[in-house]
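Minutes, project huddle
Topic: does the predicted pose make sense with coenzyme A bound?
PN asked that the exact inputs be recorded in the minutes so nobody has to dig through chat later. Recorded below.
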Amino acid sequence: MTIAVYPGSFDPVTLGHLDIIERASRVVDRLIVGVLNNSMKTPMFTVAERVELLKRVTGAIPNVEVRSFGGLLVDFAHETGASVIVRGLRAVTDFEYELQMSQTNRKIAPDVDTVFFTTNLEYAYLSSSIVKEVAMYEGNISEFVSPEVEQAIWEKIKSSEKKGSL
Ligand code: COA
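Predicted holo structure (tokens), as shared on screen:
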């Protein structure tokens, strides 16, 4: 049985991430989407909210599970019994960073391999930050995220405006 982890910040999950999740779930037995509790970034959504959104958009895929994690990715892989890390490559600019990460991970955990999926061209330009930026200026984000995520973004922006943050 092949178990894989697909890690990321997912703040929030985009259609680009979903494309990778759907494709990866077809080639492994179990795919665990790992939401990083990343203190380096200032997120729009809490980890719990990101996990919840991911659960909602992946609910129809039976072999996908969503969890949060902190610390080293390879430790999370070991904890879940995963032997594969899934990452998406959007453009050549992702390559250097991904190569460095996968080589470091392999050095510290030789039993865990990284497998790359090339992102669907339709989403090659997409990132969570770009989606949030377009939304801040009230642009149309319906082609970047699923309807439940879109609604969550609008609600978050509205409640932040009320509080005077963002
Ligand atoms: N479609 C759309 N957007 C995508 C995408 C895709 N297929 N793939 C990546 N992105 C975007 C993300 O939305 C994110 O955008 P943002 O910066 O605007 O938020 C950006 O690309 C970065 O991707 P993401 O995967 O979210 O995070 P990351 O590259 O910062 O972190 C981890 C990746 C979680 C794998 C890494 O930080 C990690 O392993 N951390 C744990 C600590 C550890 O083990 N460190 C040692 C590693 S060598």
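Observations noted during the meeting:
- The radius of gyration is 16 Å.
- The first strand starts at residue 3 and ends at 8.
No decisions taken; revisit at the next huddle.
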